[in-house]
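ok new one. same drill as before - structure tokens go in, u give me an amino acid for every spot. 128 of them this time. try not to just spam alanines like last time pls lmao
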């Protein structure tokens, strides 16, 4: 499936070479009832407005209108999209002070994802 074949549908894009990312993305897909969760390696990135380098650095959320959110902002957007209690969590996480903290947590998790449960050497970010 290419995301460009599904205009108007939100998409969560993750690093499919990272076992930790794959496990996390699939869990999110189940928990948040997301229809479109794809590794960047299997989709056309250019029509989505994202690059391989961006996808290597952070999870990406492309909303229905084509707006792109990365890292903690992608997490927040996906939570808000899910609605209900998840949406409330996303709205709280989007508050300025909390969003900053979420960004710090996201960057630490991303930097050390190769050391987290399910992580492998392939999960290590380039230049970290």
């Amino acid at each position: 499936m290419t995301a460009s074949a599904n205009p108007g549908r939100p998409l969560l894009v993750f690093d499919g070479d990272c076992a930790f990312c794959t496990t996390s993305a699939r869990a999110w897909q189940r928990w948040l009832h997301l229809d479109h969760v794809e590794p960047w390696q299997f989709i056309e990135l250019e029509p989505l407005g994202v690059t391989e380098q961006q996808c290597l650095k952070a999870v990406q959320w492309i909303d229905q209108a084509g707006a792109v959110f990365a890292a903690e902002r992608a997490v927040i957007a996906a939570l808000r999209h899910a609605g209900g209690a998840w949406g409330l969590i996303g709205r709280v996480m989007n508050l300025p002070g909390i969003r900053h903290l979420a960004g710090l947590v996201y960057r630490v998790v991303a930097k050390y994802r190769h050391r987290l449960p399910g992580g492998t050497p392939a999960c290590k970010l380039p230049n970290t």
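The first strand starts at residue 11 and ends at 14. and btw The chain has five helices and four strands.
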